[in-house]
Write a structure and sequence with these properties.
Length: about 300
């Protein structure tokens, strides 16, 4: 794995990772990670992709992993949701310049799936060959708006870079409720206990998001559900939704299906969905992750051969 940085606002650098296949590459996959984690955590998934001929890249979002600074501490966003998405897009542009003739796929997970959905309509001419959306969802607009209102009150009271137990409970407090006798507070991530324990032990994972980051993410989710934004997506782009049917982020499949139907309703021509029985949020760290690998690779084989 190669590591590098590119400079952004406020004297901050964005940390990136690149994995290379042996031999001539057949395509590029950019992974967009979720909240309270970082790019190098996807090493296992990236290795699977490189073994099948793909160059893989990913960036630590601002306030995550090694993309932190005095100006943007851990768990914070600066200058808004669209700015974070623009960092993801900048890595896309840089990688395309390095490999101009290769098909480009984007793989977004959790918050990264919501960022990817924003990227699809903000940069519809990005030249993507396919998109995979993992662990995404759809929430009622009144819920998102009330969440933003609570963030506004908390932010004014405590400051945007502060964390808030109220916000943490609002965003993640109910996620374990669907499981009997949960062993840890983050059992909703995966049925693989080793992966859950690794998550808990890693100081770069599971930190409390700032009030500002929570507000920006809820705002991004609202933007993603606006029909006028959905209509801007490139209609011929193949999109694969993957999720566990016991993933609370996706409403145990309901929110994933709503998103899938919303994509179809605006005329997206090739939209597919796969829900994995009993799987939870992090499919790439689930007990059945080899099934996920096979499904994603089969999807890419098909769309790249068209």
């Amino acid at each position: 794995m190669k590591e590098f940085y590119f400079p952004v606002r406020k004297n901050t650098r964005i940390h990136c990772c690149q994995w290379l296949p042996e031999g001539k590459p057949r395509g590029i996959i950019q992974i967009v990670h979720g909240i309270a984690e970082y790019a190098a955590r996807y090493d296992e998934l990236a290795t699977v992709f490189t073994e099948h001929g793909f160059v893989v890249v990913a960036e630590d979002h601002m306030g995550h992993g090694n993309s932190i600074s005095e100006e943007i501490p851990q768990g914070c966003f600066a200058d808004g949701w669209l700015t974070a998405v623009s960092d993801t897009y900048r890595l896309l542009q840089m990688t395309k310049e390095e490999y101009p003739d290769l098909p480009y796929i984007i793989y977004g997970h959790s918050m990264g799936s919501f960022m990817t959905r924003t990227l699809l309509y903000t940069y519809p001419d990005a030249g993507l060959a396919a998109a995979v959306l993992s662990g995404t969802g759809w929430m009622p607009k009144p819920v998102l708006k009330s969440g933003r209102a609570i963030c506004l009150l908390e932010g004014r009271r405590k400051g945007w870079n502060a964390s808030s137990p109220t916000i943490d409970k609002l965003m993640f407090g109910s996620y374990n409720k669907g499981y009997e006798n949960p062993r840890t507070p983050v059992d909703w991530l995966s049925r693989d206990e080793k992966e859950v324990d690794k998550y808990i032990a890693d100081p770069l994972l599971g930190f409390s998001a700032s009030i500002g980051l929570a507000r920006e993410m809820l705002g991004g989710m609202l933007m993603n559900e606006e029909k006028e934004n959905l209509e801007k997506m490139p209609k011929t782009l193949p999109v694969l939704f993957v999720s566990g049917d016991k993933d609370p982020v996706g409403g145990n499949g309901k929110g994933v299906r709503q998103t899938y139907e919303a994509f179809r309703a605006v005329g997206m021509q090739d939209v597919r969905i796969k829900l994995y029985p009993d799987a939870r949020h992090e499919l790439h760290n689930e007990l059945n992750r080899e099934e996920l690998h096979a499904d994603v690779l089969a999807f890419l084989d098909e769309v790249l051969c068209k």
